[in-house]
Amino acid sequence: MNGSDVQDLADWLIDGARSAANSTHMFAETCERIVAAGLPLWRVGLFIRTLHPEIFGRNFIWKPGAEVEMGTVDFHILESPDYQNSPLALVFQQGIEIRARVDDPASSRFPIIADLRAEGVTDYIALPLLFIDGSIHASSWTTKQPGGFTDAQLAALRRIVTPLARISEIVTLSRTASGLLDTYVGNRAGERIMGGQIRRGHTETMNAGIWLSDLRGFTALSDRLPSETVVDILNLYFDCQVASIRTHGGEVLKYMGDGLLAVFPVDEYVDDAQHVCARMLEAAHESRVSVAELEYPIGDTVERFRFGLALHVGPILFGNIGGGSRLDFTCIGPAVNLAARLEKIASRLQRTVVASEGFASICRGGWSDLGEFPIAGFSKAERVYGLVEETSAETSH
Questions:
Q1: CA dihedral 195, 201, 207, 208 (to 10 degrees)
Q2: Tally of CB atoms within 10 A around 215
Q3: For the CA atoms of 150, 152, 156, 159, what is the dihedral angle to 10 degrees?
Q4: Backbone phi, then psi, for 88, in 5-degree steps?
Q5: Which DSSP symbol is given to 47?
Q6: Checking DSSP bridges between strand 136-143 and strand 123-130, what pairing results, if any?
Q7: Which of 106, 188, 216, 304 has its CA 20 to 30 A from that of 235?
Q8: pLDDT, tens digit, for every residue of 211-239?
Q9: Distance between CA atoms of 99 and 123, rounded to whole angstroms?
């Protein structure tokens, strides 16, 4: 091993790996520089736990001459025998290093060693990555070198792991912040917040399609069912909409009890209002079917659900609103207010999907004119449209 090269690598990591364009390049260059220093690595893995409601962790795998492979695992991995019987499980649980020489009979307690032996690997070591916040992450290092790792090579890996953990933590913190913002305020709002749009009053006007929906009979449902059951139903109900909204270019801004507010930004430079509205309508059709098919068994009965949805398009004010240091990144404006009023009209008319005249005039076809209705807070009545295929039989069940 070339000790000078190892020290240069450690210094490079401590300095922020500035020559690497991103975290993937940083990991690849780290491995390549270790090989150049005299340690013939075969397969190296980084395993970083995340703070995310669906993802347990991310993994990065490097092999000589190949692109770094990135992947994610969900929380089900904790129950899998492959994980429970792996060296990484011990690293995560105890924060200790695990070495498994392939020719050592004691290493057979880890099923992965048989797979590594088949690849020609001679030695394996898993080293913890200890973050400042106390969390434990992991790295794994393998070689095909005859006789396995030497003591000097192991010392070099241990020397590198500490600065590697520091820079991995910095990258992870940034990714976590971005991921949590995406989860709680939406990806576009999250990008703006991460970009520095954090002061109260930081707003911008944008044209957008507006989606406002709620679950019919939610108050009665909440009154007769346990709170835990209501929460489970709400999650399933929102699942019926969120996937379609995101697939068709929308962003969920807010959950308000059983209500959901989403926006579909319109790029006025390419005049895509028609395409945006068409995608919204497609998402509405998909959500309508999903909610209609949703069933929730409770005892000997099966709960079925209906919802109402208002579609509108218009200018909104998008940004930070709130009091003191407690802000909300949301949208306001007459267009949002109108969408809220339209949703109430949908309920009164026992309709699933209604649209404003502005939306229906952009997204033509498939609408029936339901008439003009006075709108509370607005100076003139609004013409409201409903889906042609909705029949009284369908909407009254």
A1: 80
A2: 21
A3: 120
A4: -65, -35
A5: E
A6: antiparallel
A7: 188
A8: 999 999 999 999 999 999 999 999 999 99
A9: 8
191: Cβ contacts below 8 Å, ≥ 6 apart = none
Q: What average pLDDT does the segment 28-47 reach?
A: 95
DSSP string, 308-348: EEEEEEEEEEEEEEEETTEEEEEEESHHHHHHHHHHHHHHH
Residue 163 backbone phi and psi in degrees, to 5 = -65, -30
Strand bridging mode 353-356 / 307-323 = parallel
CB 43 within 8 A of CB 143: no
> Among positive and negative, which fits the CA dihedral 163, 29, 89, 78?
positive
Q: Which of 376, 360, 365, 260 is nearest to 313 (CA)?
A: 360
Q: Which of 2, 150, 102, 121 is nearest to 63 (CA)?
A: 121
d(CA 85, CA 293): 40
The partner residues of 194 in beta bridges, in order of sequence, read: none
Rounded Cα–Cα distance for residues 8 and 98 (Å): 26
- What CA–CA distance (Å, rounded) separates 10 from 132? 18
Q: Quick check: helix, strand or coil at residue 130?
A: strand
Q: Which pTM does this prediction carry?
A: 0.70
The single-letter code of the amino acid at 366 is G
User: If DSSP codes are grouped into helix, strand and coil, which group holds residue 181?
Assistant: helix
396 pLDDT exceeds 60? no
Contact 73, 94 (CB under 8 A): no
CB 389 within 8 A of CB 350: no
Determine the angle formed by the axes of helices 23-36 and 3-14, rounding to 10 degrees: 170
Residue 284 pLDDT grade (very low, low, confident, very high; cuts 50, 70, 90):
very high
90/83 Cα distance (integer angstroms): 10
